[in-house]
Amino acid sequence: MGFMSPPRTPVMPTPTPPPPPVDTARAAVLAEENMSEQMKKRKGRGSTIVAGALSDQKSPTTGTPTLLG
């Protein structure tokens, strides 16, 4: 590859094929199914575990509770 030889042209890679079209009807059905499964898994306020609610039960020293406990 001397300076007297002609430059080689670079080989261009083949373009990638376009992505398949999105099936909006199927996507809507999958989204609805996912939402219904999430709603079934949610138990509500009764199953929420509050840290310290069961382990630390002290009576307040003052008559009125404060924001800091």
What does this structure look like?
This protein is mostly helical. Helix content is 26%, strand content 0%. It has 1 helix and no strands. The longest helix is centred in the middle third of the chain and has 18 residues, at 24-41. The protein is elongated and about 100 Å long. The mean pLDDT is 77.
User: Taking Cα atoms only, what radius of gyration do you get, to the nearest Å?
Assistant: 33 Å
Biggest beta sheet summary: none
The secondary-structure element order is H
Summed over residues and divided by their number, the pLDDT gives a mean of 77
Number of helical segments with 4 or more residues: 1
Task: Give the distance, in angstroms, between the N- and C-terminal Cα atoms.
Answer: 82 Å
User: Low-confidence segments, ≥5 residues, pLDDT <50?
Assistant: none
Count of individual beta strands: 0
Helix/strand/pairing category: mainly alpha
Helix content: 25-40%
Assembly state of the chains shown: single chain
How much of the sequence is in beta strands?
under 5%
